[in-house]
Write a structure and sequence with these properties.
Blueprint: H1 3-10, E1 18-23, E2 29-35, H2 38-46, H3 54-62, E3 65-70, H4 74-88, E4 103-107, E5 115-118, E6 127-132, H5 135-148, H6 169-172, H7 186-202, H8 204-220, H9 224-244, E7 253-261, E8 265-274, E9 277-287, H10 292-305, E10 314-317, H11 324-335, E11 340-342, H12 348-385, E12 393-401, E13 407-415, E14 418-419, E15 425-428, H13 437-453, E16 466-470, H14 473-483, E17 493-498, E18 504-508, E19 514-516, H15 521-555, H16 563-573, H17 576-581, H18 584-589, H19 595-607
Parallel strand pairs: 7-10, 10-11, 12-16, 16-17
Antiparallel strand pairs: 1-2, 1-3, 4-5, 4-6, 7-8, 8-9, 12-13, 13-14, 13-15, 17-18, 18-19
Helix pairs in contact: 1-2, 4-11, 5-7, 7-8, 8-9, 13-14, 15-16
Length: 608
């Protein structure tokens, strides 16, 4: 249907509350909204002369038809809208994804363990606590724990570096216990690490009781050095607690919302207070819109109801959303108790709202420069490659193989000029059993197209704007043939070629022509970063598989242990070292490992 036909259809709608569902020409749901009066709201989209921001303009351009569901009340429309958005996740509804991902607390496995905040787990034998959804909270927890218990953060290795050189500045200012001095026993260090982890896991209340008890025990045993260290740890925790009162909420459970807008985006900042203390800050960016009211109206219900976010007893906002009474009622029904949703006019909470707004403006200021640079880079890339539009979603592929004919592929995604790690995927070849990069690349892209056509989830549900292959004309020819008559056949396709020093040289077109990048410094750097990241991702997968095979092969040297048992042991213990050190009862507890096999493994590693 044309825009005029959609407007004519919208004029026939009733002036009743309900939910409207907009679809594109392929029948896919691209937007879901609610309205107090369906006719008024829906007709605004398609009536000529009504101004819209960039995001809504794109949605209208892709709209082909719409349906409506009439409800008895605005409250029912709100409930239905939330459930429908959660089920369908339409493209033009706001996506509540910040750029933090999951975070972990890492505890290394060594004589003197270190504690740090990391963004992803690795197969390195370390202990990982998490995942946590807030990198802010993880960094704060780790920094506080390291400071309170004066754990080292330098690059020295202990016990190898004990006694070598003088203690660093952190030791002199009281932020490190100076293990390198040789005055700290391994037992005392272990207690400090245990205390730090206890603080991270359970908070300040429990660890203070434990430390006071240990201090009294040390004093009774006349171990005054240990008692003094414990006293300092207690004082440090209490000092941190006093410092946190500078930014506190008078309500135990409270979220504080504020939004800000620039010429190209809206940012929402949320400060989360628990037990009156600031425990997290989250920020969400929405590009191609300046409509703060529309974002606020959709953000608040989505934030709490779509992903089952904890609903606090008090929510302070810079401005109430439309239909806020219905939203409060729905929040109260979901929480099971009263929820205060309000705009503070004065006092400390009003200052906290202003603080959230300042954070939102600061994020927009930082983002505007970066976003402008990335958009300019995508524009330059499109011009160089002859693309109609800047490629907002770029997928890149590389093959990695080893001598026995086994091949794997890595797929990385760049969205808006930045890596989108949530979209990365890996493929293990299913039909290619020789070292044939052309065939492996063809299988990989064929499977990618198949996943898209089946309505795949996550990145597989997205149609890329540009596909890059690590390779030349041979890879392109194989992939073009594999993508014939698929939904990805029309996606622009280029190969990335390297010079004799294995550095990015240029791009190969489907016709075999090479586009030199040396005269386009920014595009050259951009394509190089994509190629390097794709190569790293594919090689990392191959190395992990090789490592797993090596581990499994080692375990299969044990009489009575076959591939299935070896796989079960590695799945449970992660490393051969952990299997070697496990007790018989621990081996028996592993799923898929018989008592007979456990006894064989236990005896084997005790004899070797």
């Amino acid at each position: 249907m044309t825009k005029y036909e959609l407007w004519q259809k919208a004029k026939m709608l009733p002036l009743l509350p309900g939910v409207y569902i907009i679809r594109n020409k392929a029948g896919e749901i691209i937007y879901i909204g609610k309205a107090k009066r369906l006719r008024t709201r829906v007709s605004q989209y398609f009536r000529e002369g009504v101004p819209h921001d960039a995001k809504v303009t794109k949605m209208i351009h892709n709209a082909y038809e719409f349906d409506v569901i009439v409800t008895q009340s605005e409250f029912e429309a709100l409930v239905l809208e939330c459930s429908q958005i959660k089920q369908h996740k339409p493209k033009y509804n706001i996506l509540l994804k910040d750029d933090k991902g999951y975070s972990y607390v890492k505890v290394t496995k060594e004589a003197y363990p270190r504690i740090s905040a990391v963004l992803q787990k690795e197969d390195d034998g370390a202990e990982y606590i998490g995942p946590y959804t807030s990198s802010f909270a993880v960094r704060e927890m780790v920094e506080t724990a390291n400071n309170v218990f004066r754990l080292p953060r330098c690059n020295k290795k202990f016990p190898q570096d004990i006694g070598k050189g003088r203690p660093c500045l952190n030791a002199h200012i009281g932020l490190c216990m100076a293990v390198c001095s040789g005055k700290i026993s391994r037992e005392m260090y272990g207690e400090a690490v245990d205390g730090a982890l206890h603080l991270i896991r359970h908070g300040q209340g429990e660890i203070l009781k434990l430390l006071r008890q240990r201090m009294e025990e040390a004093a009774e045993k006349l171990d005054f050095e240990r008692a003094a260290m414990l006293r300092d740890q207690i004082n440090a925790i209490e000092k941190v607690s006093r410092g946190q009162k500078v930014v506190r909420s008078s309500v135990d459970e409270q979220d504080v919302f504020a939004l800000a807008a620039s010429a190209t985006a809206v940012c929402a900042a949320i400060l989360r207070f628990r037990e009156g203390r600031l425990v997290d800050k989250r920020e969400f960016l929405f590009h191609d819109t300046q409509d703060v009211t529309a974002v606020r109206n959709e953000l608040l219900p989505r934030y709490y109801l779509e992903d089952s976010e904890f609903i606090p007893k008090s929510i302070a906002v810079d401005q109430l959303p439309d239909g806020w009474e219905d939203l409060r009622r729905l929040l109260e029904e979901t929480r099971g108790s009263k929820v205060q949703l309000y705009v503070p006019r004065r006092g400390d909470t009003a200052k906290l709202v202003e603080m959230a707004r300042t954070n939102a403006f600061e994020r927009l200021a930082r983002e505007s420069g970066r976003y402008a640079r990335e958009q300019k880079l995508l524009d330059e890339t499109a011009a160089l490659l002859g693309l109609r539009q800047p490629p907002q979603v770029i997928e890149s592929y590389d093959i990695s193989n080893w001598g026995d004919g086994t091949s794997v592929a890595g797929m990385v995604v760049f969205e808006g000029g930045k890596p989108k790690k949530a979209g990365y995927r890996r493929f293990k070849m299913q039909t290619v059993f020789v070292n044939d990069d052309y065939a492996s690349m063809a299988e990989t892209l064929s499977r990618r197209a198949s996943e898209y056509e089946k309505g795949g989830r996550g990145q597989f549900a997205v149609k890329p704007d540009l596909i890059l292959l690590d390779g030349g004309k041979g890879q392109i020819s194989a992939v073009r043939k594999a993508l014939e008559n698929t939904s990805l056949a029309a996606v622009p396709l280029f190969g990335m070629v390297k010079d004799d020093r294995h550095r990015t040289r240029g791009l190969i077109t489907p016709d075999g022509e090479e586009i030199q990048l040396s005269m386009h410094k920014s595009v050259f750097s951009f394509i190089t970063s994509i190629q390097d990241e794709t190569h790293r991702w594919a090689n990392d997968y191959r190395k992990r598989l090789q490592k797993g095979r090596a581990y499994a092969s080692t375990l299969q040297n044990v009489p009575g242990v076959g591939p299935a048992t070896a796989k079960a042991l590695l799945s449970h213990f992660k490393t051969v070292t952990a299997v070697r050190q496990a007790e018989y009862e621990e081996l028996c507890a592993a799923k898929g490992v018989s008592k007979r096999a456990a006894k064989a493994v236990y005896d084997y590693f005790r004899q070797t």
